[in-house]
Amino acid sequence: MGRWSFVGRTDELSRLVSAATSPDTRGLFFSGTAGVGKSRLLWQCLEDLPELGCAVWSASANIASAGIPFGGLAQVLPADQPPGLSPAGIMRWAVDALHQQAAGRRIVIGIDDAHLLDPSSAALVYLIARSDNATVLGTLRSGEPVPLPIRALWTDDLVDHAELAPLGPAETTDLLAAMLGDPVDAPSADRLHRLSAGNALMLRELVIAAHASEELNRTYGVWRWTGRTQLPPSLDDLIDARIGQLEQGVRAVVELVAMGEPIGLALLSRATDDSDVELAEERGLIRVVTHDRRSDVRLAHPLYGEVVRRRCPVTRARRLNARLADLVERAGTRRRDDLLRVAVWRLDSGTEPDPALLLNAGGQAFSQFDVPLAARLARAALDAGGGYQAAELLATILMFGDRAEEAISVLDSVADQITSDERRSRWLTVRGMVSYWGLNRESTVAEIAADAERLTDPADRARVVAFEAIMRLHRLECDEALRLSRSVLDRPAATVAARGLARCTIAHLQAARGELVLSARAVEGVAAEAAQWQAEMPYLQLALELARGTGLALAGDLAGIDAIVAAEFADLADAGDFRLGSGYLSILRAQAARLRGQSGEALRTSLGACAVLATSPVFAGLAHAERAQAAAMRGDVDSAVEAMLESDRSHTTVMAVLYPWLEQARATVLAATGDLPGAVAGLRGLVGRLQSDGFAGHEVLALHDLVRLGRADIEIGEPTVTGRRQSVAQRLTELSETVDGPLPALMARHARAEYGHSGDQLLAVADAFSELDLNVFAAEATSRAVARLRAARSTRSHEANLRLAGLLRRCDVLRTPALSTRQPALTERERQIARLAARGLASRNIAEQLYISTRTVENHLQRVYNKLGVAGRGELWPALRSIPEQEGDADR
Length: 892
Known about the structure:
Residues 819-884 form the HTH luxR-type domain. The chain is α/β, with parallel strands linked by helices.
């Protein structure tokens, strides 16, 4: 792995460049911890400065040169130093020599690790900063003593001084992609960011080690980290240098914090000596974080814990874990996570495990969607004699960890312990869930329905019926799913969890049918009762998000999608490797990015979803369909076709309810390949199927796809009572009166404007789409308006073209049929001349450059003006930006 690309730090880089080039400043120094990226930032700035007309010199101070006079600036001082000069004479000579070599340009001196400069070099730097037309840039390591002349640079107000913060999560993600050549999935990027604490050097070492040990796996062009941490020797040595040799008391403090962080300050004080705690904090080994009235202690860097825990002898580690558990139990498990932490400490200490403690802790970990930890605790509870309850919990967790066969085996091992209807109902639902969604066995639905008949308790039966209902919805037995769900709600004995699952089933069906208000209301009701069902059925959250996400996507509510992918569940699912939740929310995020016109983000996010769901059949087909949509939007036909084939391969019939999204994607891919008749035929078939299923919410989107392809006039569906079939525009107008939300009415307006060939109405529709942040629809409607207005020789064609250019600037690469087939056709020569004219070249200069006559240039320009609907050269560039890039056109 070579030198990484420079990413992020745009504000800091701009500040450095500004400090180097502005006549009002003399320089800037950045302080920061080792490895935070100070040196890389400085070198990047110095690389750019010669192009700005600066004379640039650079030096890197180090310990070896710290004791040699002018050793730190040996790379800067001219080689032909006159003999016999005093130190003061050398300084004056050096400044004069640098100005002579600069030949009137601004002098820029960049010094890395300026805190290691020898006294003479430090004094020379100060003198250079005071001279005219000179700038000094530098880096310092935080916490290190700084030579007085360097410190005087900012105390005398000659230069600015700032602290360089660690990389943020987004910058870390970008840096990982630059290092590996492909994006990293969000959970892996988040874990690596937290472990490196935004330190670029530590991040690089972690990635190198993970790559070498094959802990980084690449799937569908996305890297995923397994999460195991094997520190390379180079990083080990770096952390050793920071921690240093620990006294016995300080080591006790650091080890306790490493085993138990975050640990309460009061608890740590009871377990260790206060003076040792103070010394550990003073040396930068620990930090105290205060929130409200609570003070917690953490290690100063996450990797310190990895080193300390690895080097701690097994016997001492067990003793420390047992001591932590004793301390918290004596103080009382008052905090939310105390029960979970005590269970883990007991497990790690090897002390006699309490099955009830492990079982409760495993349930708590699962309710926080930490799948690996929950599985570990549940298995320990089963091994410790937890019996049926431990087996049920473990099997459920294994299902969501993509280990369905193992889950069935665990459940069957405790079948003889089913001694009540309550246990049988829970066993049936967990086994049915694993069999149906984990193993794709459609026969599960009939089996679970037959078994439910033998249950006598109404509450137990309601639980099984609620699961049967959602299974029937997913296999498109919608009427039966609705009947069963309502029967659960009609039973007062049904638990909150069973009722919540039934309401989610109904909410999903309501969204598909276009009853978005009722769907949203049902979802809000289930979410409001989360505290009552989360412990019993945490995975109900997934059914809730599927119903809510379906409604938001059908409503085109991008702000609503943004809200749920930014909520706590998304963070927990990512961090806890809850793949179904994390993957589905990534699909939603990709849908929102696609509709906004951010095709690159849509492709990256959908690829991440494909990687996360590679072994999870529930949503894998949907993830690949969304990837196909994003690739088609970017004009990457081969990738779109491949993704659609993968969608068909990975989609399972147990999730047949997702077919509208897949068929829309298929039509999009066909259109991208140029098979517009095939795309139209596919959409007409989809509309007919949706009408038959009563999925009016989905039907609106499929009909609008026909409008986007310019087919608002074709007939669809079955004949009406008049014996004639409706046009797309007529059907959308009809649906706009029954399907909730503003989108159906807007799409119906779009259809009527397209049907009536009205450029002005298309512009009004585009404005409305733009207000909803639906930039793709807005750009397509505007593109069609431009074509209509030009055909009518309207004076508004120029205005429309400028608006199209503005919309496209808000988008990434777009290659949809409405944008590519409805644009004015410019010849390659016309494009050449138009681009040169837009850059301000006179006709004579263009003629000379292209070896043609000036008259030819003027004639071509006039044809360009007519085609683009512009009045002159000043309006060319926005108009050119509105035309999709052609093959080989590098001046997009």
